[in-house]
User: Which sequence fits this backbone?
């Protein structure tokens, strides 16, 4: 999973939004609890923003160069699927630079 260390090279910012209590956000909350420390250790100066808001749908937003953003809804996804979604967003950032 070498792509984990490339967040700061391919993205400008990562935002993860979820509800603190809803069942729809359970996998997103769990993903953050299990992966935030590792991602932040590998990318210490990279902004990973965690936003909790009551009643919001779980989402992941990636901001790239030139203000380009891509958002993905995480509702119904499992933790491995969320991890794959993040990997795809990171790889998309690499292709935008080419």
Assistant:
């Amino acid at each position: 999973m070498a792509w984990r260390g490339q967040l700061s090279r391919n993205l400008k910012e990562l935002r993860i939004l979820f509800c603190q209590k809803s069942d729809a956000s359970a996998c997103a909350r769990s993903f953050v609890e299990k992966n935030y420390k590792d991602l932040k250790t590998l990318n210490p100066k990279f902004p990973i923003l965690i936003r909790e808001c009551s009643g919001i749908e779980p989402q992941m937003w990636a901001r790239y160069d030139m203000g380009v953003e891509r958002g993905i809804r995480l509702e119904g996804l499992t933790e491995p699927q969320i991890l794959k979604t993040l990997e795809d967003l990171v790889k998309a950032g690499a292709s935008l630079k080419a």
Summary: The first strand starts at residue 13 and ends at 18.
